[in-house]
């Protein structure tokens, strides 16, 4: 590892400390201290073996004391070029561990080892590390299985480890190395491959055909959606003679109803094709825009006559230029780093899209893209709901609910006037009405739920996975960290979502969280603190 150490030894130590690669906290069910090691956090390129050994000797081993302990090693997302120190380095680290520490180590929980690491250890493990250690290894293929050995509250597991569990549910072949567990890349040049591709046996899904049925089922759902609407309206006009009469007398009434139908259908299709805000597109936009900005500012410094044109670009350029330093990092990296600036959490690069994820972004396995302010993947629409189309989605819910209500009203008035006329017509109408009522309840609840999310600036994903998400962990339940007050939230939701700069929320400052968790007083109610 790291012959190319580019930072001083002191800085390397500080880096290990800051990244919390090694953390001693909690106990397993047999009362042994837990030394948690997150492989993904290990900066193998920047830290030398000597510094690592020194760090372990001075900062980690003394804290373990003379008591029995276990190691919880998280291998999830470890990339050979970034986080893997190399076999010879591992060997020398192992050799440097004092004998008494080795004796006290009773178990190693190895999370997400993958088939390749397992095969490697099965072949060379005994030779490299002594049979004693090899016998203490426990492979944990899903985080859920860890709870057999360790209580949930005892350890902090980063969100990406849980995400990997979800990945495995979608791509079980990943467990066996048949599908890549990293670098399913859109933008990376192919020249990067050489040593890494032998580690992950293929670059990308081996079975692209699997993605086809998903698209097909989405088409079927859309067809079913249109058919259901047509059936409801057609049956109404077929059976209900009064409605036809009424249409002749008051055409505006029926026209309004049909207009609502058309608007709902259009909104449905518009939402299903609207971009939910993909991180990859945002990254390209930011990088391109800033390239333009730099060019513009160069030319504007040469000619004063272009003042008007450059003004707009300058304002936006400044917003992300807060931390611009002359390094190789792209503008997007700087923007994302800025959003994370208050937190010790490092920026996280999606292993599928190879894009640095801003806070609140999540990779969707159905769309196979990272979505900004990911809410959920809607099967009914065949599209993700995120920052870009959440507003549209809410309007669609409103329109569909209104349409359901109106249709229900028309069905009920027909049944009231015509019940016992033709029995089979009544049966059809009653069955359709029951289905309509169920849909209405579901839609109404969904609409209210999303209204609540909008008012508090949350997403479904954040609400459901609150305890798992790194940036939400430790924040009291009733505090909504991204909320800027009801009015501001609604305004931002409706009006500001089109711009990448305005719609990306930075992680809140600790003072802000403290202020928000302050209990409500009478004065707060009067002054409308929540608004
Ligand atoms: Zn992604
Ligand atoms: Zn999706």
Kindly describe this structure.
There is one protein chain. It is built from 21 helices and 11 strands. By secondary structure, it is an alpha/beta fold. It has a domain at 9-170: CRAL-TRIO lipid binding domain (Phosphatidylinositol Transfer Protein Sec14p, 3-Layer(aba) Sandwich). It is elongated and about 95 Å long. The model is unreliable at 1-5, 177-211 and 304-328 (pLDDT under 50). One zinc ion binds next to β9. One zinc ion binds at residues 350, 352-353, 363, 369-370. InterPro entries: CRAL-TRIO_dom (IPR001251), CRAL-TRIO_dom_sf (IPR036865), Palmitoyltrfase_DHHC (IPR001594).
Q: Round the mean pLDDT to the nearest integer and report it.
A: 77
Classify the beta-strand content into a percent band: 5-15%
Number of helix segments? 21
- What does the radius of gyration come to? 29 Å
Low-confidence stretches: 1-5, 177-211, 304-328
Family: Belongs to the DHHC palmitoyltransferase family.
Pfam family, one: CRAL_TRIO_2
Catalytic activity: L-cysteinyl-[protein] + hexadecanoyl-CoA = S-hexadecanoyl-L-cysteinyl-[protein] + CoA
Main location: membrane
């Amino acid at each position: 590892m790291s012959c190319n150490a580019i930072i001083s030894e002191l800085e390397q130590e500080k880096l290990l400390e800051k990244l919390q690669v090694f953390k001693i906290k909690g106990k397993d069910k047999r009362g042994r201290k837990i030394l948690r090691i997150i492989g993904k956090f290990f900066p193998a390129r920047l830290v030398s073996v000597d510094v690592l050994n020194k760090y372990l000797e001075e900062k980690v081993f003394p804290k373990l004391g003379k008591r029995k302990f276990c190691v919880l090693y998280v291998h999830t997302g470890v990339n050979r070029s970034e986080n893997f120190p190399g076999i010879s380095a591992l060997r020398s680290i192992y050799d440097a561990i004092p004998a008494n520490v080795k004796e006290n180590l009773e178990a190693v929980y190895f999370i997400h080892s993958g088939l390749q690491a397992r095969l490697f250890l099965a072949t060379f493990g005994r030779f490299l590390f002594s049979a004693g250690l090899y016998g203490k290894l426990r492979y944990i293929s899903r985080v859920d299985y860890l709870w057999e050995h360790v209580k949930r509250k005892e350890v902090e597991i980063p969100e990406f480890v849980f995400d990997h569990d979800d990945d495995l549910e979608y791509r079980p072949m990943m467990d066996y190395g048949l599908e890549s567990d990293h670098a399913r890349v859109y933008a990376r040049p192919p020249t990067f491959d050489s040593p890494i591709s032998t580690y992950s046996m293929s670059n990308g899904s081996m079975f692209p055909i699997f993605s086809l049925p998903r698209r097909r089922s989405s088409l079927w759902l859309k067809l079913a959606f249109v058919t259901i609407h047509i059936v409801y309206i057609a049956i109404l006009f077929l059976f209900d003679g009064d409605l036809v009469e009424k249409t002749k007398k008051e055409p505006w009434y029926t026209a309004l109803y049909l207009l609502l139908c058309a608007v709902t259908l259009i909104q449905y299709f518009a939402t299903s094709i609207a971009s939910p805000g993909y991180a990859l597109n945002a990254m390209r936009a930011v990088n391109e825009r800033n390239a333009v900005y730099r060019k513009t500012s160069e030319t504007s410094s040469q000619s004063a006559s272009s003042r008007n044109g450059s003004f707009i670009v300058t304002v936006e350029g400044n917003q992300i230029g807060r931390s611009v330093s002359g390094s190789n990092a792209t503008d997007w990296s700087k923007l994302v780093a800025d959003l994370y600036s208050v937190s010790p959490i490092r920026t996280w690069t999606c292993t599928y899209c190879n894009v640095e994820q801003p806070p609140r972004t999540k990779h969707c396995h159905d769309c196979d893209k990272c979505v900004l302010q990911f809410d959920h993947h809607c099967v009914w629409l065949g599209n993700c709901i995120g920052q870009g189309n959440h507003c549209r989605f809410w309007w669609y819910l409103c329109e569909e609910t209104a349409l359901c209500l109106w249709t229900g009203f028309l069905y009920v008035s027909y049944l009231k006037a015509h019940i016992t006329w033709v029995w089979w017509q009544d049966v059809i109408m009653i069955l359709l009405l029951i289905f309509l009522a169920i849909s209405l309840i579901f839609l109404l609840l969904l609409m209210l739920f999303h209204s609540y999310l909008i008012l508090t600036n949350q997403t479904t994903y954040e609400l459901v996975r609150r305890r798992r998400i790194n940036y939400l962990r430790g924040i009291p339940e009733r505090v909504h960290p991204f909320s800027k007050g009801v009015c501001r939230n609604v305004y931002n939701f409706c009006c500001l979502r089109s711009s990448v700069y305005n719609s990306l929320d930075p992680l809140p400052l600790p003072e802000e969280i403290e202020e928000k968790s302050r209990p409500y007083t009478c004065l707060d109610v009067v002054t409308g603190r929540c608004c």
